[in-house]
């Protein structure tokens, strides 16, 4: 199957999945208890006329199917509606907050890839006490939830030692990176441990294969052997965790952003869920689903490049 045909087919599947996800996301908010009109009234009593005006403004009394089709049509035109809480366009809110989240996720992803691959490589190659130390360390990392890591890092490095800011996003790229260092570490800690263990296991499996033994018997230098014959063959297995890594980063950023008061879409999602700000929750949820599927598509396209033994057809059937 050609790359273009495979990509076209996957894009069609993504569109169908997004359509189904949009229905679930839109319906889930309406199944939850409470009503956005009660938030707009701030607990105050209102006359039937005032309540009707609010419901008419936000189309809250329309049948569910009518509301869903209206919202879906707006989304297809790039309009996510108007925030009930902030009284502004959802697109404007996302444009203001998305850069902070993307920078935080990108910084955490760099830490995950660099440290996860490095620790897994070292553990598989060195063995002995080094491998045992890495196993213990990564076990601790995997067993530490992001919100717990956020509290510990904030208490130690921000409050007690004062090395990093305790919250906020800063202004200017250097200051933003400084403010987001602790949130990125808290976000990446679990995934660093997971990726290190996956990399170590994949490399140890390849190290035991016959072609590695043959290459070593032929006098191939150890460094070249590890790079070309071991790590490269193990990279296909490691790459399959890409979708899980990105999805975990996107989900956990809600907790980490709230802990460090990072004004990103994660914190916005938490606040909007609490206040039942339907348009904001629906927009962010749909964006997260779309990003997750996009990453999976990229992983599927990159896998044959990393491991030529895997074809797009085989990769798709395996998925």
From TrEMBL:
Question: A Pfam family name for this chain?
Answer: BPD_transp_1
Where the record annotates domain ABC transmembrane type-1, the positions are 98-299
Q: Which residues cross the membrane?
A: 12-32, 102-122, 134-157, 177-196, 234-260, 280-306
Which subcellular locations apply to this protein? Cell membrane
| InterPro entries xref list | BPD_transp_1_N, MetI-like, MetI-like_sf
How does the UniProt record describe the way this protein sits in the membrane?
Multi-pass membrane protein
> Which UniProt key words apply to this protein?
Cell membrane, Membrane, Transmembrane, Transmembrane helix, Transport
UniProt xrefs under Gene3D superfamilies: MetI-like
The record's similarity note reads: Belongs to the binding-protein-dependent transport system permease family.
Alphabetized PANTHER family for the sequence = DIPEPTIDE TRANSPORT SYSTEM PERMEASE PROTEIN DPPB-RELATED
Protein name according to UniProt: ABC transporter permease
Q: Which organism does this record belong to?
A: Kitasatospora nipponensis
């Amino acid at each position: 199957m050609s790359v273009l045909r495979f990509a076209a087919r996957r894009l069609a599947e993504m569109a169908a999945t997004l359509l189904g996800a949009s229905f679930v996301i839109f319906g889930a908010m309406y199944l939850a208890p409470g009503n956005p009109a009660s938030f707009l009234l701030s607990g105050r009593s209102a006359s039937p006329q005032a309540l009707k005006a609010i419901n008419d403004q936000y189309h809250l009394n329309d049948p569910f199917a009518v509301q869903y089709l209206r919202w879906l049509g707006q989304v297809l035109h790039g309009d996510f509606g108007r925030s009930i809480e902030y009284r502004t366009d959802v697109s404007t809110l996302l444009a203001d907050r998305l850069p902070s989240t993307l920078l935080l996720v990108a910084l955490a992803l760099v830490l995950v890839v660099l440290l996860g691959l490095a620790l897994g490589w070292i553990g598989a190659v060195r063995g002995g006490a080094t491998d045992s130390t890495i196993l213990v360390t990564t076990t601790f990392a995997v067993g530490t939830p992001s919100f717990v890591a956020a509290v510990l890092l904030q208490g130690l490095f921000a409050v007690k030692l004062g090395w990093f800011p305790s919250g906020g996003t800063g202004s200017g790229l250097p200051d933003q990176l400084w403010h987001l260092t602790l949130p990125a570490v808290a976000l990446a800690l679990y995934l660093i441990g997971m990726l290190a263990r996956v990399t170590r296991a994949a490399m140890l499996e390849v190290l035991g294969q016959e072609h590695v033994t043959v290459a070593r018997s032929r006098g191939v230098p150890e460094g070249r052997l590890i790079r070309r014959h071991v790590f490269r063959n193990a990279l296909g297995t490691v790459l399959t965790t890409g979708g899980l890594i990105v999805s975990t980063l996107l989900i956990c950023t809600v907790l980490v952003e709230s802990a460090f008061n990072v004004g990103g879409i994660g914190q916005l999602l938490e606040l909007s869920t609490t206040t039942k700000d339907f348009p904001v929750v629906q927009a962010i949820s749909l964006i997260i689903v779309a990003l997750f599927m996009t990453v999976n598509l990229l992983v599927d396209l990159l896998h044959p490049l990393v491991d030529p033994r895997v074809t797009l057809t085989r990769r798709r059937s395996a998925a």
